[in-house]
Amino acid sequence: MTLCSISISIAEQKRARRDVVFLLDGSDGNRRSFLAMRDFVERMVERLNVSENRDRVSVVQYSRDPQAHFYLNTYSKKEDILESLRGLRHKGGRPLNTGAALQYVRDNIFTASSGSRRVEGVPQLLILLSGGRSFDNADTPASSLKELGVLIFGIGSRNSDSRELQRISHEPNYALSVSDFAELPSVQQQLFTNINAVLVERTPITTTVI
């Protein structure tokens, strides 16, 4: 094996380990779109390499208050995550406090006790699906997450605040929009492209000394 192939394989191994958190708008205004959001998360999980030592997944739903459905260390098998997702029900409630939800995710999900491997250098990904403008301030907790090293990707519907999502996201152009969440399949590949672009950008060049 050449030095080049060794370094590439090491980089691929690093990218293969991801902690992925889905933060879903479960407010009253998003009731009709919730099934489409849930189906989107299922399709995303299908494409992940889920295991204790590879990709880990957590799902949080929020409206006025956030609620964790399962943590990064709750399930280590893809089948168990998918089964849990199929049983996911719309939370309901208002107003939409995206800022409080982002802070909750920072303090309670991206932690070692909840299964986060941030201190091991495993990429921390947050995928936010929001169907409306936040009632509270989301900029400060979003910045706090970024300082922690969390890579945030936002997807909004027609009623969301596109500028707000751009500020929350890792880069403004990584905030995606659909007119309705039923159109989420149309941006799924773009989301993966954005995620992979950031992970390549964040993966250091590995050199091997023999």
Automatic annotation (TrEMBL):
<keyword id="KW-0677">Repeat</keyword>
<keyword id="KW-0130">Cell adhesion</keyword>
<protein>
    <recommendedName>
        <fullName>VWFA domain-containing protein</fullName>
    </recommendedName>
</protein>
<keyword id="KW-0176">Collagen</keyword>
<dbReference type="GO" id="GO:0005581">
    <property type="term" value="C:collagen trimer"/>
</dbReference>
<dbReference type="InterPro" id="IPR002035">
    <property type="entry name" value="VWF_A"/>
</dbReference>
<dbReference type="InterPro" id="IPR036465">
    <property type="entry name" value="vWFA_dom_sf"/>
</dbReference>
<keyword id="KW-0732">Signal</keyword>
<dbReference type="Pfam" id="PF00092">
    <property type="entry name" value="VWA"/>
</dbReference>
<feature type="domain" description="VWFA">
    <location>
        <begin position="19"/>
        <end position="191"/>
    </location>
</feature>
<dbReference type="InterPro" id="IPR052229">
    <property type="entry name" value="Collagen-VI/PIF"/>
</dbReference>
<dbReference type="GO" id="GO:0007155">
    <property type="term" value="P:cell adhesion"/>
</dbReference>
<keyword id="KW-0964">Secreted</keyword>
<keyword id="KW-0272">Extracellular matrix</keyword>
